[in-house]
TrEMBL record:
<keyword id="KW-0804">Transcription</keyword>
<dbReference type="InterPro" id="IPR050109">
    <property type="entry name" value="HTH-type_TetR-like_transc_reg"/>
</dbReference>
<dbReference type="GO" id="GO:0000976">
    <property type="term" value="F:transcription cis-regulatory region binding"/>
</dbReference>
<dbReference type="GO" id="GO:0003700">
    <property type="term" value="F:DNA-binding transcription factor activity"/>
</dbReference>
<dbReference type="InterPro" id="IPR009057">
    <property type="entry name" value="Homeodomain-like_sf"/>
</dbReference>
<feature type="DNA-binding region" description="H-T-H motif">
    <location>
        <begin position="33"/>
        <end position="52"/>
    </location>
</feature>
<protein>
    <submittedName>
        <fullName>TetR family transcriptional regulator</fullName>
    </submittedName>
</protein>
<dbReference type="InterPro" id="IPR001647">
    <property type="entry name" value="HTH_TetR"/>
</dbReference>
<dbReference type="InterPro" id="IPR036271">
    <property type="entry name" value="Tet_transcr_reg_TetR-rel_C_sf"/>
</dbReference>
<dbReference type="Pfam" id="PF00440">
    <property type="entry name" value="TetR_N"/>
</dbReference>
<feature type="domain" description="HTH tetR-type">
    <location>
        <begin position="12"/>
        <end position="70"/>
    </location>
</feature>
<keyword id="KW-0805">Transcription regulation</keyword>
<keyword id="KW-0238">DNA-binding</keyword>
Length: 190
């Protein structure tokens, strides 16, 4: 978007509407045109182009927005202050809500290491590692746990919860399953 000053409230709503429509359309048809996205948003194609120079700019804005949502989810879970088990469950449930609601944007590959979305992902990764460190210090994870590996496994479990068979579980039940598996393995889950 490239604007250095904040958008007016109506322009912000327009951008939000376009991003949400783009997610709906692109998650069903990744090859959809800007015109199809504009139609789904209920705006003129020129409005989409005024906000996003091209399709790549729109996709990058979607990825940056989803990372912003993940930052908010992390903040809401209070990973630095809540008991680690509580924070893990809260954050996992809310991350699942974001991933379920924004599947296309969550799947964007960050090829530009300097993009806002890639920087945001690094920030999310660092905060996740800090939470897992607290979980290890609290005895939820073994003292010898490789935290980077645990983070990668945690992300994979979340991915499986989102993309696995639909067994009708909501985000809270899926979070319980993910956190239980992370902490106890695939055996008995407390």
């Amino acid at each position: 978007m490239g604007a250095t000053r904040p958008l007016r409230a109506d322009a912000e709503r327009s951008v939000r509407t376009i991003l949400e429509a783009a997610e709906r359309v692109l998650s069903v048809n990744p090859g959809a045109s800007m015109e199809q996205i504009a139609e789904a948003a209920g705006v003129a194609r020129t409005t989409v182009h005024r906000r996003f120079a091209n399709r790549q700019a729109l996709v990058e804005a979607m990825a940056a927005d989803v990372v912003r949502q993940l930052d908010e989810v992390l903040d809401a879970g209070r990973p630095e202050t809540a008991p680690p088990l509580v924070a893990l469950h809260e954050i996992t449930a809310n991350v699942l809500r974001v991933k379920i609601g924004w599947p296309f944007a969550m799947g964007v590959v960050f090829t530009d290491a300097d993009s806002p979305a890639a920087e945001g992902k690094r920030r999310v990764d660092d905060r996740c590692l800090a939470l897992l460190r607290r979980a290890r210090e609290d005895g939820l994870l073994d003292a010898a746990t490789d935290l980077d590996w645990a983070r990668r496994v945690f992300y994979a479990l979340i991915g499986e919860a989102v993309h696995g068979p639909d067994d009708g579980l909501g985000p809270d039940a899926l979070a319980q399953r993910v956190v239980g598996t992370l902490l106890h393995g695939v055996g008995r889950v407390d």
